[in-house]
Design brief:
about 475 residues; alpha+beta; Beta-Lactamase; Heat Shock Protein 90; 12 helices; rod-shaped
């Protein structure tokens, strides 16, 4: 879910919750206010009826009291008007069948027992009707007729139908809620539009620029004309992008220079290897060959009885032959002439035969798709990678089977060396300060944009692969 919808839903939820609480509170307080208004009106009616009763009590015909009660009870929304005597009997009522009946209302008990301590009306709300009981107090002016006791001469009970009032209050509250809902909807739409134009779209442009920078387009920038927080973030992003671009250009220049230096270093190294190998071959190799020839001539010229001298000279010739063989091995490791003269495939076959097969290691060599010779630098890199892998196998792997696969396609040439040796921890070895061989072939691969992969686990052998794009 996007930030825009999260904020809008949050604000809408807050406003909706506040609106519901406010609507319910408003409905409650409006109902209370309406009840208080009814109570005040009822108090006025009760006082009016009380004054009328006081006048009618002076008349000999008590029918006037019943008429006053019936007339007051016929007004809407009055539902009942009754006068109750202290013995709980209905003296007069707008509901004729109830006259003479006994009332058991608890509110009447409170009115008649508490006397003058009840100075306000007692309320009773049942369903949609409101009842108010008003005490008739024995005034001092009435003592000539009633005496000073009892204090409460009776009570007036007036009932109101509050159904229409409550319905009107609920309708008003509903109208207010509808108006509030429309206002909230307009507010949410306005908030969504404002949030999208002021926050979401700038952040989306910022994210798009960040993705372009992540893909290598360091010139990507965002519009930072605003002066709010989003504008500040955009300007900070542009400053960061500018610094990244500058640093990247510096690093690219350094990498380019490093690559050139590394390429030159490898070329110089190979040239030096070639020179040393040639000098070893032309000088020391020829000297050892001459020594062997002279020793052979000397042995042949010795008389038959010089057996001791013959054995010593023969041993010296064998040592010279061994030295010459070791010298040729060193020359081959430095720079095999077959690589320069015949190419990569013969050089690999010769090297594998001389190094692995002599150690009774089974070698499976596969050459696929390689019809013509590769560029010199590429052939040297592939040979050095295989050479380093074979050297490590002989030194550490304790392998019995080695698979070497050289595959060439229209897009790349790949060499893979796999053994069944004891394996090693690749990360730990590459971090080691002594793993110059693996680091060296990795640097060689980087010069020609090659991709070197080394996979190995303890007890599961090693797989080394170099892929060079054509």
């Amino acid at each position: 879910m996007s930030l825009q919808y999260k904020v809008v839903i949050l604000v809408f939820g807050i406003i909706l919750t506040t609106g519901i609480i406010g609507g319910l509170s408003g409905l409650y307080f409006q109902r209370q206010a309406a009840v208080e208004q009814f109570s005040d009106s009822t108090m006025v009616l009760a006082a009016t009826l009380r004054d009328s009763i006081e006048r009618d009590m002076l008349l000999p015909d008590r029918e006037h009291i019943q008429q006053s009660v019936r007339l007051l009870g016929s007004r809407s929304p009055v539902t009942e008007v009754s006068i109750v005597s202290p013995d709980r009997r209905v003296y007069a009522s707008s509901i004729i069948p109830t006259i003479g009946q006994t009332k058991d209302d608890r509110e009447l008990d409170r009115v008649f027992t508490l006397g003058e301590t009840i100075t306000s009306a007692a309320f009773q709300s049942e369903q949609d009707k409101l009842y108010i009981i008003y005490p008739l107090v024995n005034k001092s002016a009435c003592f000539s007729c009633h005496g000073s006791s009892p204090v409460i001469l009776g009570a007036i009970k007036i009932g109101w139908d509050t159904t229409s009032l409550i319905r009107r209050v609920e309708q008003q509250t509903l109208v207010m809620l509808i108006i509030g809902g429309l206002a909230v909807a307009v507010m949410v739409v306005a908030l969504s539009f404002t949030l999208r134009s002021a926050v979401v779209r700038p952040l989306m442009r910022l994210a798009a620029s960040a993705r372009r920078i992540a893909t290598g387009n360091y010139s990507a920038r965002v519009d930072a004309r605003g002066h709010d927080e989003v504008g500040t973030v955009a300007r900070s992003f542009n400053d960061m992008a500018q610094r990244i671009q500058e640093r990247t250009e510096q690093l690219q220049q350094m990498v380019k220079i490093r690559g050139q230096l590394l390429d030159r270093l490898i070329s110089v190294q190979e040239e030096e290897r070639r020179r040393i190998a040639r000098e070893l071959h032309d000088e020391i190799g020829q000297v050892l060959s001459a020594i062997m020839m002279e020793l052979s001539r000397t042995v042949e010229s010795l008389p038959a009885e010089a057996t001791v001298a013959r054995e010593k000279l023969e041993k010296s010739r064998v040592i010279a032959a061994q030295s010459l063989a070791e010298l040729r091995r060193m020359i081959y490791d430095l720079r095999p002439e077959v690589l320069d003269q015949l190419g990569l495939v013969p050089a690999l076959r010769s090297y594998i035969r001389n190094r692995l097969e002599e150690q009774n290691i089974q070698v499976n060599l596969s050459i696929q798709g390689l019809k013509d010779r590769l560029p010199s630098q590429m052939e040297i890199t592939l040979f050095r990678v295989v050479q380093e892998a074979v050297t490590n196998i002989l030194r550490y792997a304790k392998a019995t089977v080695v698979d070497i696969d050289l595959t060439a396609t229209e897009s790349a040439v790949t060499v893979t060396v796999k053994d069944n040796g004891q394996g090693f921890d690749v990360d730990k070895t590459l971090r080691s300060t002594e793993s110059w061989g693996l680091r060296g072939i990795r640097e060689r691969a980087s010069v020609i944009n090659g991709e070197l992969t080394i996979e190995s686990k303890a007890g599961q052998g090693t797989r080394l692969q170099l892929r060079i794009p054509l």
